[in-house]
Amino acid sequence: MKIETRAVHAGRQIDSTTAAVAAPLHLTTTFERQADGSYPTGFEYIRDANPNRNALEACISELEGGAAAAAFASGSAATMVIFEALSPGDHLVAPEDLYWGIRVMLKEHFADWGLETTFVDMTDTTAVERAVRANTRLILAETPSNPMIRITDIRRVAEIAHQAGAYFACDNTIATPVLQQPLALGADLVVHSATKYLGGHDDTMCGLVVAKAENPLFQKIRKLQKTAGAVPSPFTCWLTLRGIQTLPYRMRAHCENALQVAAFLNQHPRIEAVLYPGLPDTAGYQIAAKQMSLAGGMMSILVQDDREAAMAVAAKVKVFTRATSFGGAQSLIEHRASIEAPGTKTPDNLLRLSIGLEHADDLIADLAQALK
Ligand SMILES: *Cc1c(COP(=O)(O)O)cnc(C)c1O
Prior knowledge:
Elements: H1 3-9, H2 51-64, E1 68-72, H3 75-84, E2 91-95, H4 100-113, E3 116-120, H5 125-131, E4 136-142, H6 154-163, E5 167-171, H7 176-179, E6 189-193, E7 207-211, H8 216-228, H9 234-245, H10 247-266, E8 271-275, H11 285-291, E9 298-303, H12 307-316, E10 321-322, E11 332-335, H13 336-339, E12 350-354, H14 360-370
Parallel strand pairs: 2-3, 2-4, 4-5, 5-6, 10-11
Antiparallel strand pairs: 1-7, 6-7, 8-9, 9-12, 11-12
Helix pairs in contact: 2-9, 3-4, 10-14
Bound molecules: pyridoxal-5'-phosphate (PLP).
Pyridoxal-5'-phosphate binds near residues 74 and 207.
């Protein structure tokens, strides 16, 4: 079945006791044990498993074409648990423009813990090959990446990882399973910040790991989920599952709007560059065309001159909201370098745009006046 149909039905069934069509929200922390000591529904305690989390995990696993999924309290927690499932002394290859918070986690926590990371330009597969060592256990990529919107060749990096005997994890937050299916292209794990497009309404934080097979790495991830408990609440799972029902249609509208906004900005004299894989003159276009069905709703722009010029554009928007995060109905604009930290490689004149579900004409008009 097509993804529109699967997004509506995956992980959902009519409630057997009430016939409720919308999924019931089970806030219970604990489940009754039978006189013989058994748990006939399989549920014992909220942290181990619960109906709303199981439903969300079944849904994302089906949409990504995985064998299993584990839900976490945030995208950051989901990624952290992948690192924790490795061992001290292991080596990891990660993109140099990796999501800022996760880069900090690797540099300031996991380095001390004994996990060595080499940061590379993930679009340069020769550099990725060179970075691999005998103890490389994981290659992590983000494509499109945040905030440089770089495109990694998933198939090629998966081959490099597997030749090295390493796992390949792909952050699919920006593309979502609607636009890109990393597991089918060779990835072993997909990770999501469901806080973004999957939730889709700027109102809930959640992370997901999907595994192509229940391999030893995923078994460890599942164990850490249950024992360490960096898990989402049932309500978070319920909201995320609800968001996913409309994901394919939202993604289509985000992509249509983004393509129009990108075309407008690309010919604007005050814009030095538009980083958007839907534009034929951008670096990742060819690979994106191979592995994504549409180019997504996220772009970054480099404003002519400097940081002040970029800040001035962000200061003047009226329909866009100046805020971090992305993937909701409202369009957002953000000066990334100043939210990251001193020492970031993000250009000072870069603004990241999350193109929302407003009409493209209104978004273009807003940017046009802000760029005057
Ligand atoms: C937001 C984001 C994260 C972190 O997710 P949280 O849910 O905010 O913890 C990780 N990776 C990418 C690509 C993101 O955009």
